[in-house]
Amino acid sequence: MAARQVATTATLEELRTTFNTLSATDFGDISQLSSSISASNLVAAMNELEAEVAGFSVSTITAQTDLGAAPATGDTFVINDVSAGGLKEMTVANLFTSPTITSPSLIFEGSTADSFETTIAVTDPTADRTITLPNATGTVSLITASETLTNKTLTSPTINGGTIAELSSLTFEGSTANSFETAIAVVDPTADRTITLPNSSGTVALQEAAIDLNGTELTLDADGDTTITADSDDVINIKIGGNDRIDLSTGLISIKNDGTQSAIRMYCESSNAHYAALTAPAHADFAGNITVTLPSVTTTIVGTNTTDTLTNKTITSPIVSGLALSDSSIVFEGSSANSFETTLTVTNPTADRTVTIPNESFKLASYANKATLDGDGSTTAVTVGSGYNINQFLVTINGVVQEPTEDFTYSGTTLTLDAAPGSGDRVVVKY
């Protein structure tokens, strides 16, 4: 808008032209005037404009906390563009539809104007990123905060440590969403407990289910004792080929087989090069079950065909086939265990000697026993010991040897002469 002047020498036509230019150019087209301006003269219009501009004073905007109502789509906002040095108009659509905030953070004062604020910061992105808020009312969860999450589904989560509180079981749906689930339950602990899963792939064994190791080893900790616990009336069965082959019960180990005699092998200390086996007899040798009782002392078991030295052994009713005694005597205790024994001594032979025992029952005659009879012309009987053979008696009459059977007989404890010795004859019987 420029100031216009009419020269004193101007004509009326020049005055008309200057005035029209003032109206059309300097004041503008009246038809373009906003209908919101109700003033009918320039002064009133300026006052109206000043009143409108005063509504955007700094003090009013600072004190304003609520628009009162959500702005309509067609509403506009007038802002002061400091860099451009003037006011600018911004529509609601431009202000609230997909706005771009160039500042790296948003700061919220909260309901109390103090020194504490909440800042939402954005890490400088290296690509376009989108964070979508859910279509729900709730509280945003933070990574490092201690929070309680409800009804959350975690897909392929990685959990590093932590404690699951007030939870007695974990339920797994499985690959099929149906009415069947697997629950891992935890009994309420009475002390701190630790269950360690091995560093390997495999299937967890269950207490009530059969365990199939699938050819793998069952390794027990070599640094500690391992206990297999069962009730006193239980039998622990070790199956081989699907059949019970080793049964463990209270005080008893039963070893069974598949058609061969059962045995226990005990190996030597040198790389298990040799073993000693305790083998059950063959079926045909059994007349019934047998029991072999080990002695209650530290000892060595002897075999039927081994050469051994036996000490302090009592053999009842033995049958000896071939006997060689290295000692020179045999001591017989007798029926009474006392200080009196009978010793059978053999003189050291100077050559091989054979003493043959006759095929008959008899007492061994020492001839230390003696019976006598003084003849009276009628007595023929002499009392002697029992259990002897008639040939074991040495009978003399006045020093003359009598012949058994021919000159005397023997029965019980009586030796009978064929003829009565005469008066004065001396009969001597040794046996």
Question: What does this entry look like structurally?
Answer:
This protein is mainly β and 431 residues long. Among the domains are: 50 residues, no CATH class; 61 residues, no CATH class. It is built from four helices and 20 strands. The protein has a four-stranded antiparallel β-sheet with strand order 14-20-16-17, with no helix packed on it. Strands 7-8-9 form a three-stranded antiparallel β-sheet, with no helix packed on it. It has a three-stranded antiparallel β-sheet with strand order 15-19-18, with no helix packed on it. The longest helix is centred in the first third of the chain and has 15 residues. The protein is rod-shaped and about 230 Å long. The protein starts with 11 loop residues before the first helix and ends with a strand.
* Share of helical residues: under 10%
Class derived from helix and strand content: mainly beta
Rg, Cα atoms, Å: 66 Å
Strand order of the largest sheet: 14-20-16-17
Question: In short, what is this structure?
Answer:
The protein has 431 residues and is mostly beta strands.
